[in-house]
Amino acid sequence: MSIANIEAHLEASNEAKLQDLQAQEQGGKLAGQVQLTDPSLQALVSEVMGATLNDAYPRLCGLIKRCYKARKQAQVLSQSLALSRWHNELLVLTDTPSGHAFKHLATLLADAGHIDAAIEVCDRALALGLNDGTATGFSGRKQRLQQARPS
Known about the structure:
It is a single chain. By secondary structure, this protein is an all-alpha fold. 74% of the residues lie in helices and 0% in strands. It contains 8 helices and no strands. The chain has helices at residues 3-31, 39-50, 53-69, 74-77, 80-90, 99-111, 115-127, 137-148. Helix 1 (3-31) packs antiparallel against helix 5 and helix 2 (39-50) packs antiparallel against helix 3 (53-69). The N and C termini lie far apart (60 Å).
């Protein structure tokens, strides 16, 4: 390997690290937008904020799952857009995006009345080749959301 190749490799590696740090910083800013009154959910927000780069995305997926289970609470639904933005920012930190997190986000957003945002989540999941574990997958979920969209 030539010196020029080594320098190019190091530059690319440093650029990737910088992008990861910028994503983590942005993720921290977005975390500040997620305000949950349930102490156990807010504790999970703090865990995601304090996580390493490798742990931030899986921890956020855990938070999204817990919010999905608590989606009957209006306060949780009111945070669905902020959770979705945070998920989008931390998504760049993982090589293994969670189909379940996308499914839970789409449901949270739809239940909160954010149908277009839920459809965007489905589109992103489809683009990543993810499956939501249902018979019709994200394409069926997207179709149902489009039908539920107010005229």
